[in-house]
Specification:
This protein is of the alpha+beta class. The chain has eight helices and 13 strands. Strands 1, 2, 4, 5, 6, 8, 11 and 13 form an eight-stranded antiparallel β-sheet that branches. Strands 3-7-12-9-10 form a five-stranded antiparallel β-sheet, with no helix packed on it.
């Protein structure tokens, strides 16, 4: 694989660092020489191969070998469509339904600690049992056809027609799922399986006050390259999950029931929900991606 390709400078922006980097420790497969930055900011993509994911550009003779398709731009533009399907699903399905959110292994999450905004918030949060759960559209590369077709057809169509860089369906490292953090939950520090993918969070439900230091995604090695970012509804976050990372949602729920979105508060009880989408690392060529799909096929 042509993993040692460099990225040309654009304007005054320097070439981004390449793997391996401190704090980057994938658990299954590591490919050196790929761009390695914990977070990829939409406003600072010049000089970075992440440009290929953020925004679409006209195809010309000077276009890069891997098309600049704007997959993340497409997700952001269709945020309201995806959110509506999610809320329609939540409002029509019972929590104990076989189609509902399924908790991850409790060993990978714990109770979040500290920083409640008030005494009443502290009481409410401490009474909430932590939980991290999911609804998969693609799991380890395999399409969950019944879920996609029955409950999320428009979301699946957006992913499959407007996001050509997704790994789902092509490699076992690629998943797509709705991720729900209940109030008072921390996802423990961990590294993803590989650095050949980048992970995107599309925030769909973010309770009020959740961006005031009480709910956040932390990526990178503390004191070296760590960055902490809060979720804001409709604004995607793109990061390299081969770096050590964790997530915290202490949450906020109005006990009087007042809310701008009654369905969200009533059914989700102050939880945070994002759509997680795995993309191929943009430096990988088509032949690289094909080879990785053979080494780690869907389901592996």
């Amino acid at each position: 694989m042509n993993s040692n390709a460099t990225i040309k400078k654009v304007g005054t922006c320097s070439t981004p660092p390449l793997s391996p980097q401190q704090g980057q420790n994938p658990t299954v497969f590591f490919l050196p020489g790929l761009e390695a930055v914990p977070f990829h900011d939409a406003n600072r993509y010049m000089g970075s191969c992440s440009l290929r994911l953020w925004k679409s550009l006209p195809i010309s003779k000077k276009s890069p070998p891997i098309p600049v398709t704007g997959d993340i731009e497409s997700l952001q533009n269709n945020h309201h469509v995806i959110k509506k399907e999610l809320l329609d699903f939540v409002s029509s399905n019972q929590e104990d339904s076989s189609d509902s959110f399924k908790p991850f292994d409790p060993k990978v999450y714990a109770r979040a600690s500290g920083n409640a905004t008030s005494q009443s918030d502290s009481h409410t949060i401490n009474d909430t049992q932590p939980e991290w759960s999911s609804i998969y559209l693609y799991r380890q590369g395999i399409r969950q056809s019944e879920t996609c077709n029955k409950y999320f057809p428009r979301t699946a169509h957006i992913l499959e027609t407007k996001c050509p860089h997704i790994m789902a369906g092509k490699c076992g490292f690629g998943s797509v799922y709705f991720s729900k953090l209940k109030r008072n939950t921390k996802v423990k520090e961990h590294c993803g399986p590989t650095n050949v993918r980048w992970r995107c969070h599309l925030p769909l439900v973010v309770p009020e006050n959740s961006m005031e230091g009480s709910s956040y995604l932390r990526v990178g090695l503390p004191g070296v390259n760590e960055k902490c970012v809060g979720w804001e509804e409709g604004l995607p976050l793109l990061f390299d999950d081969s770096f050590i990372h964790s997530a915290v949602h202490r949450g906020n729920f109005k006990s009087d029931g007042s809310s701008s979105d009654s369905i969200t508060d009533f059914e989700l009880d102050g939880a945070r929900v994002v759509l997680i989408v795995d993309f191929w690392h943009p430096m990988l060529s088509d032949s690289d991606r094909t080879a990785l799909g053979v080494l780690y096929p869907p389901g592996s």
